[in-house]
Amino acid sequence: MFVPGLIERKRDGGSLGSEEWRDLLAAYADGRVPDYQMAALLMACFLRGLGREETAGLLDGMMASGGRLDLAHLGRPVVDKHSTGGVGDKVSLVLAPLVAACGIVVPMMSGRGLGHTGGTLDKLESIPGFRTALSLEETLAQLARVGCAMIGQTPEIAPVDKKLYALRDVTATVECIPLISASIMSKKLSEGLTGLVLDVKLGSGAFITDEGRSRELAETMIRLGEDRGCPTVALLTAMDRPLGRACGNALEAEEAINALKGEGPEDLHDLTIAEGVEMLLLGRKTPPSAASRAAAVAELEEAITSGRAAEQFQRIIEAQGGNPAVVDDPGLLPTAPRVEVFRATHGGTVLRVEPRAIGRAIVQMGGGRQKVDDVVDPSVGMVISARPGQAVEKGEALASIYARDEDGVTIARRSLEQSIAIGEGKASPLPLIAARITAQGFEPLV
Ligand code: URA
How far is Cα 233 from Cα 295, in angstroms, rounded to an integer? Predict the structure, then answer.
């Protein structure tokens, strides 16, 4: 393999074949290809793009770098979901136990906070004792026993993706649809799934802010999944305001626990149910119809109202070394020493609640990482009650700030001043769920 030749071909608009990708990635994984050559190739990919077949070759090469969970012996449907990430998006914490309580095996493999967006692993780790770094063996045993594991990427799953992602992060080559698609799908398809639901965010707080590109991302991932025998469905959902009210790790874990008991905010509940319906239908290979959707909604609602979903979360927490008592008493979650109310300086209509400023502020307050080795403070964040379209009066509470010190309060205040726009006129938030995309096509839901 002559790597400069591969880089040159890609630079000049050509493409690499599947075997070339496989050999190159294997060589990169074990250190025979240095970072500087891979960085040059990634930039050529970023600038030239990858066609459908080449993206598939890249994905297969990434998956070949590791193993694959084999859960066929469980004889049950295995379904996961992936969100492209946002602010206040704690759906995974509610959805995984909820769907597992309905009999679907959920091997939920998630990531950490990235940029302004929060990460499921950081939220779970705010639960005292909760371990997300399970080995493959522990994961398999827990899936058989409990039906759900909520973990980080194990060293066996697409290990070259981890190395490539770290390199892309520092070479400005992250925001490239084929690279993102292959990266996400290499991990998800290695979980041995029988179905996958994608939550692709739209709006100013999304990772990709252009609606057309979000749709392209969803369609690329669906094709990759379907071509490898994993039925894949995507929902395009709103991230032009935070999801729910709580933003920040422990605050989000608390809100997720409330949602599991049917006491969460409406948008979090509705999105969780919508994704849960897709997971149940995919898992059971039930064709979507008004009747099958209504039955799935009823089943999910029953799992919440009966307490089975919350009990399932307790079992997962216990299995992963955490304190299951947090489900009955969220007061056991870490709490910030400073709590301040943020109030409206004038009356009017809430026109916008901009998520990006909130997410960045939480990182600066200590709730996320500015450097890879930063330790996250799980207690900090904000609970934002102001919603776009709401009429507010001067002095009305719009949010609560949870900080570890005065600097944190100042950062949060400034971000809320920037984020929450109050004025005359009409708010025009995105619909919570704008569209559903499958291999059969695009279905607008509004
Ligand atoms: N998340 C991933 O796992 N990979 C990407 O490339 C981007 C987001």
Answer: 19
Instruction: Identify whether 183 is a catalytic site residue.
Output: yes
Q: Ligand 1 centre and the CA of 120: distance in Å?
A: 14
Report the nearest-CA residue for atom 1 of ligand 1: 184
In sequence order, the β-bridge partners of residue 81 are 197
**Percentage of the chain exceeding pLDDT 70:** 100
Q: Write b or e for each residue in 164-198: b if 16 or more Cβ atoms lie within 10 A of its Cβ, otherwise e.
A: bbebbeebebbebbbbbbbbbbbbbbbbbbbbbbb
Residues 6+ apart with CB under 8 A from 26: 61, 64, 65, 160
pLDDT at 360 over 80: yes
- Angle, helices 35-48 vs 3-11, to 10°: value is 20
Looking at ligand 1, which atom is closest to the CA of residue 165? 6
Q: Which of 356, 408, 400, 349 is nearest to 377 (CA)?
A: 408
In this predicted structure, the answer to whether residue 371 has a pLDDT above a threshold of 80 is no
Q: Are 282 and 197 in contact (CB under 8 A)?
A: yes
The per-residue pLDDT for range 265-308, each reduced to its tens digit, is 999 999 999 999 999 999 999 999 999 999 999 999 999 999 99
For a pocket test of ligand 1, which of 174, 185, 190, 200 has the largest count of ligand atoms closer than 8 A to its C-beta?
174
Tell me if residue 82 is catalytic. yes
Cβ–Cβ < 8 Å for 326, 127? yes
CB atoms within 10 A of CB 313: 28
Taking CA atoms, 325 is separated from 117, 304, 311, 433, in Å, by 28, 18, 11, 33
Query: What six digits make up the tokens of 249?
Result: 């790790």
